[in-house]
Amino acid sequence: CNKWAGSALMQDEALAVSIAAAVVEACAPRNVPVTLKMRTGWCQQHKNAVQLARQFEAVGIQMLTVHGRTREQGYKGQAEYDTIAAVKAAVRVPVVANGDIASPEKARDVLAYTGADAIMVGRAAQGRPWIFREIGHFLATGEHLAPPLVAEVRRLLLDHLQDHYQLYGEGTGVRSARKHIAWYVRQLPGGEDFRQHINTIDDCQTQWQAVADYLDALGQRMDRLPATTAGKDADAQEQEGLAA
Ligand SMILES: Cc1cc2nc3c(=O)[nH]c(=O)nc-3n(C[C@H](O)[C@H](O)[C@H](O)COP(=O)(O)O)c2cc1C
Fold it and tell me: Following CA atoms 93, 5, 127, 228 in sequence, which dihedral angle do they give, to the nearest 10 degrees?
């Protein structure tokens, strides 16, 4: 966001650390661990993630996640992992590496390069929630899982839509579900035409049924998603204005 919050706080280390300390103190009586996520710094000239990481650890933060871009970058350019590696080397608490991880190979490479304890996947999971098991399987075995069955994707997406409608209600739900549907069908045969069709539908039941019909038809043609379906391409997404 554009407020004085989230990664914007990296400009004021003392304030950021005092907020972290206050949260840790408030959570201590209930034994709730406090974790923290940040970027590499405010801007290219002020990459202060390492200094901040040490201070956050000192006030009791128990895990740190670092998105390998500065606040100024927004979502432009590539995430870099040198700063994440430096944070990992500077603290003892677990460090999670984040930014542009969209494949099992990238997950392996980022883990190896940074020495991080874990990775976080954001945009690449949009429309591709099975990416986590794909990465987990690859890290454990060095082999790729088969793409998901169309029947599984159908069940997942239709359940997702039901939850979405319940959470947001009919009016907002049908509109805000469109982008999720688009992420799932992106790169599927006929996906772009289907996305355009979905954008013309204004009620949940018709939208849900259209998705069911589309995936039924796809299931007649193939058992599994095409192997090339990589889901959302994180690099292609520019999401300026997000908090971190
Ligand atoms: C829709 C959306 C909402 C996000 N909201 C937050 C947020 O509230 N707090 C936060 O720290 N990061 C937020 N992020 C940033 C992600 O956690 C992540 O740091 C960023 O997308 C880079 O990782 P990725 O390349 O795997 O997407 C959001 C990202 C997206 C796409």
Answer: -70
